[in-house]
Structure of DUF2834 domain-containing protein:
Amino acid sequence: MKSVALPLIALLAFAGYTVSVMLQAEQSLLDFGISLMSRPDTAQVVIDLYLLATLAGIWMYQDARKRGQSGLSVVPYLLVTAIFVSVGPLLYLVVRGLQEWKTSVSAAQEV
């Protein structure tokens, strides 16, 4: 359960902040993205974030395959990552940590 705490706290804090910002926003998410890409300085930050998101997506795919899961099992996380960048990998880490905890609890009960 220890491996779930930090990503869960980060996920809840960031998702809560994101929802709060989106509820107060004066423009749509798409309009906001377009305005960010219209200036070289903010476009550089967006491109940097999506490069990092791509690396996180590759890691999630490889991690799932290494754990014996289908590559398709990461599609929901990749879709969330495409829209909300950090939320996808954080959610993946939380779910993975809960799965590991559940497996360790089951193994301990069998002994």
